[in-house]
Amino acid sequence: MLEPKLQESLDRQINAELYSSYLYLSMAAHLEAENFRGMAQWMRAQSGEETAHAMKIYDYVLERNGRVTLARIDGPKTKWASPLELFEDAYAHEQKVTAMINNLMDLAVEEKDHASHDFLEWFVTEQVEEESNASAIVEQLKLVGDSGVGLYMIDQQLGQRTPSTSAAE
Ligand code: FEO
Questions:
Q1: Is 113 in the pocket of ligand 1 (CB under 6 A)?
Q2: Which atom of ligand 1 is nearest to the CA of 130?
Q3: Which of 21, 45, 62, 138 is most exposed, with minimal Cβ within 10 Å?
Q4: What are the structural domains, with CATH classification, of the chain?
């Protein structure tokens, strides 16, 4: 069984991952509207990954004979001034998610819940990748500035990302 405090925090993490999915889908919709199709595809794939993250935690809670309690998902921002502002928001959001995962890990250690510690290690590693990906795109966008050719090339490059097929990548 899961300790109540850990159970609550895992529920909150499910909500945060679903919010991430909703936020990135909102970013994808904005990018589509601005004709950045490749960036939109990248964000749409990211949105799918976030849903998979939420389900990975959902399944873990069930495996531990816990009870998932879902809460309301906040509405995301819907417009951004530029692709740079949008990806800066995505990077800042990933940093917040990392802090939440670290807090969850601290709690698992505090509660001496070795199974949760083991489970959360996957998310710790994943967050390194998530932050690194978002930060790299921010840096590329800073580099090209307002250059139409530069933005076009980044859009083409990000459009090569395909949706992941595994349960949670
Ligand atoms: Fe599931 Fe991007 O954190």
A1: no
A2: 2
A3: 62
A4: 4-70+80-158 (1.20.1260.10)
